[in-house]
Amino acid sequence: MGETDVVHVHYWAGAKHAAGTGSDRLEVDGALTLADVVRRAVALHPGTDLERVLAVCSTLIGEQPVSSQDPGSVRVEPGATVEFLPPFAGG
Asked: Alpha-carbon distance 19 to 5, whole Å?
């Protein structure tokens, strides 16, 4: 598979801790939804808190925030980078 057949997933702070890694590479045959990315990421890390943590994360696809869009309708193209940023404490 070529580089365009991968979705790069990056975890920050608590998401990184929950996953036990800072990133994953998801091999894909075409575009996915963000919901698919989350399901596949969680499946890579069974027995962890990753699903709970990702549910409260802010998400970027490339440099674009996903905001409150339905993850089932957000398209993630091969070659994209998806970043999960948990809420940060402090100020």
From this structure: 22
